[in-house]
């Protein structure tokens, strides 16, 4: 019989890998196992580059984690039983845990508007991504939509790219950042349609709520992410979207031996505002959770997680980006880096995230 404390991390995205690697450094007398359906990690924050035909580096999870003394199991997690503390892999109840780190991330929202699942393309996960070209309408003028439209327009100047959304691209940032995004997209030849509400996606067009039909040979849907329903099925306390409700130390409020990190977790920041689904949240939340698990194992008290936010950074094709400094509540400060300097800053940040998960 083993006396080792068994820590199981489910999901090997930014959050799961960061947590596992930090736990390997910080804990003694604990076994760490990571489970993911994929055998390779691919940087999600570069998937718009993959859609524009660029190569994106991959990481062999078994080799990379093995070097840190972490066991890796490639399997689909099909259920969690928090009462018995056991996980079903590919339908078999096989993996026991003492502490579970839940990091199953998110996927594209395919169901909120009719026709999306049947006719749209996505860039939310590696399985979604295929190279895009031709006449394309990117729906959703949030960070992912902006990054994708700019990347496609730069890589394929002969493509016809429209960015369509309810709001102005970058309208939530400072005026300077907003203007820089607008100017760069326009210079790249992206047509911007704002104030548009899509009510249906068809094979060759998009229907708006005022009845307008917008021709679209290819529609790419980037309006937001949803999370797997595994946590809800397991009986964990979740919000309306299925994200695990956490306390201020990232433990499930219903099952405190489960920590939830990254996109799959509902983490509250300043003024109880949910932290956004972002790599900029996933990595610091996972670092924090690892520290909290290690501290509790040594019988120490754990201080609440602080807001991780310093900046929002949006790429605008290769070699160009907007880096907006933000307050702890994620609201924009005055300082903004744009153009080539913004591009360098963004590339350094993305390289930093890759380094954190072991890609370099
Ligand atoms: C194109 C694009 C650009 C982006 N750019 C930025 C950016 O510039 N800055 C930023 O902060 N954020 C960005 N994001 C968001 C960022 O990628 C996510 O917020 C981040 O990946 C969340 O990390 P995570 O570890 O929580 O989840 P994920 O990265 O989604 O990882 C979850 C892991 O869980 C595994 N998994 C899920 N379900 C199962 C299951 N049932 N069984 C086994 N394994 C499972 C998956 O295979 C995956 O490896 C971008 C996203 C996209 C799509």
Automatic annotation (TrEMBL):
GO terms for biological process: aerobic electron transport chain. Keywords: FAD, Flavoprotein, Oxidoreductase. GO terms for molecular function: NAD(P)H dehydrogenase (quinone) activity. Residues 6-280 form the FAD/NAD(P)-binding domain. It comes from the Bacteria. Belongs to the NADH dehydrogenase family. Gene3D superfamilies: 3.50.50.100. This is Oxidoreductase. The lineage of its organism: Bacteria, Bacillati, Actinomycetota, Actinomycetes, Mycobacteriales. Its cofactor is FAD.
């Amino acid at each position: 019989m083993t006396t080792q404390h068994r820590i199981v991390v489910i999901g090997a995205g930014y959050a799961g890998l960061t947590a596992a690697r930090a736990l390997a450094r910080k804990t003694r007398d604990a076994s760490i196992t990571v489970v993911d359906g994929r055998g390779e990690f691919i940087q999600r924050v570069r998937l718009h580059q993959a859609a524009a035909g660029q190569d994106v580096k991959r990481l062999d999870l078994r080799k990379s984690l093995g070097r840190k003394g972490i066991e890796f199991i490639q399997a689909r997690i099909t259920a969690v039983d928090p009462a018995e503390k056991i996980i079903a892999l590919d339908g078999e109840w096989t993996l026991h845990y003492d502490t579970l780190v839940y990091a199953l991330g998110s996927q594209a929202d395919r169901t909120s508007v009719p026709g999306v699942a049947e006719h749209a393309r996505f860039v939310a996960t590696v399985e979604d991504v295929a190279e895009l070209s031709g006449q394309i309408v990117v729906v959703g003028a949030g960070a992912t939509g902006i990054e994708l439209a700019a990347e496609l327009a730069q890589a394929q100047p002969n493509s016809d790219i429209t960015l369509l959304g309810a709001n102005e691209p970058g309208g939530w940032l400072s005026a300077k950042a907003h203007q820089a995004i607008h100017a760069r997209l326009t210079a790249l030849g992206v047509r911007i349609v704002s104030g548009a509400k899509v009510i249906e996606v068809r094979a060759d067009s998009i229907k708006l709520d005022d009845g307008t039909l917008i021709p679209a040979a290819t529609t790419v849907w980037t309006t937001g992410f949803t999370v797997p329903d595994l946590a809800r099925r397991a009986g964990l306390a979740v919000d309306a979207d299925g994200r695990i409700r956490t306390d201020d130390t990232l433990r499930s409020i219903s099952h405190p031996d489960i920590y939830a990190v990254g996109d799959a977790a509902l983490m509250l920041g300043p003024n109880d505002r949910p932290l956004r689904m972002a790599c900029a949240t996933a990595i610091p939340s996972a670092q924090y959770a690892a520290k909290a698990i290690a501290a509790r194992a040594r019988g120490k008290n754990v201080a609440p997680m602080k807001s991780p936010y310093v900046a929002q950074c949006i790429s605008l094709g290769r070699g160009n980006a907007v880096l907006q400094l933000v307050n702890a509540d994620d609201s924009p400060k005055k300082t903004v880096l744009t153009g080539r300097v913004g591009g360098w800053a963004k590339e350094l940040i993305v390289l930093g995230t890759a380094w954190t998960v072991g890609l370099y």
